[in-house]
Amino acid sequence: MATLTGVRKAYGDNVVYASVDFEVERARASRLVGPNGAGKSTLLRMVAGVLPFDRGERTLGTHVAVHYYAQHQLEALTPSLTVLEELERAAPELGQTRLRTILGTFLFSGDAVEKKIAVLSGGEKARVALAKMLVRPAALLCLDERPTTSTTAPRARCSRERSRRFRAQIVSSSPTTAISSIGSRPRSSRSAAGRS
Ligand SMILES: Nc1ncnc2c1ncn2[C@@H]1O[C@H](COP(=O)(O)OP(=O)(O)OP(=O)(O)O)[C@@H](O)[C@H]1O
Ligand SMILES: [Mg+2]
Predict the structure, then answer these.
(1) Which residues are near ligand 2, the ion (C-beta closer than 5 Å)?
(2) Where are the domains of the chain?
(3) Which of these, 36, 160, 174, 180, is most buried using a 10 Å CB contact count?
């Protein structure tokens, strides 16, 4: 579905990947695991196509739409809109009933969808930003977790169910420190943690 082959990536003298092969398989949620600075975000951004690399190749399956989620997505939300309006703007064709159902899976039920973006907590905003990505046609979601993101654990737990429900493929990253709180053994990428 998305493949990196023989990819080299360096920031100046810091060679993060000398030659990495990485494949995102269909019908699997993948998680990159490694300590801070191991190269998870770098790999994820290269897979998503938002970071150029020095050498090697990136190939995408046909008709694969890629969405990349990172913290800056939160700034793309409109403070004056309600949660429901924000989603309607992204996918007006789905209709309010369907959008409310989707928001329910992101833990916004009943009156919560009428809350203004401006008053939401960081974690709530993150959930709206994710919901927005998932209402658009998406085949591959690249989620870059931040060590400070309070939603890390619940999001990891839900990501498999959501990927089934929305027929999206998810690749996400987690710093090693967050893993123990998740409790399940993640599928790791040696290449991210081991700097191949
Ligand atoms: N834009 C950049 N310029 C220079 N060096 C960078 C840049 N981005 C990342 N690096 C370096 O590349 C290495 C890998 O960084 P990366 O952000 O991919 O790590 P990470 O595994 O995502 O870490 P974290 O768990 O802290 O998010 C680090 O040594 C980092 O300092
Ligand atoms: Mg990172």
Answers:
(1) 40-41
(2) 1-65+138-196, 72-136
(3) 174
- For residue 151, what are the contacts with CB-CB under 8 A and spacing of at least 6? 123, 126, 127
The sign of the CA dihedral 186, 72, 85, 140 is: negative
Which of 17, 41, 171 has most ligand 1 atoms within 8 Å of CB, for mutation? 41
For domain 1-65+138-196, give the CATH number: 3.40.50.300
pLDDT in tens, 61-95: 887 878 887 766 777 899 999 999 999 998 899 89
- pTM of the predicted model, to two decimals? 0.68
Span 82-138, pLDDT tens digits? 999 999 998 899 899 999 999 998 999 889 999 999 999 988 998 998 888 778 766
For the chain, report the end-to-end CA distance as a whole number of angstroms: 21
Task: Please give the distance, rounded to the nearest whole angstrom, from the Cα atom of residue 149 to the centre of ligand 2.
Answer: 11
Among the atoms of ligand 1, which is closest to the Cα of residue 145?
27
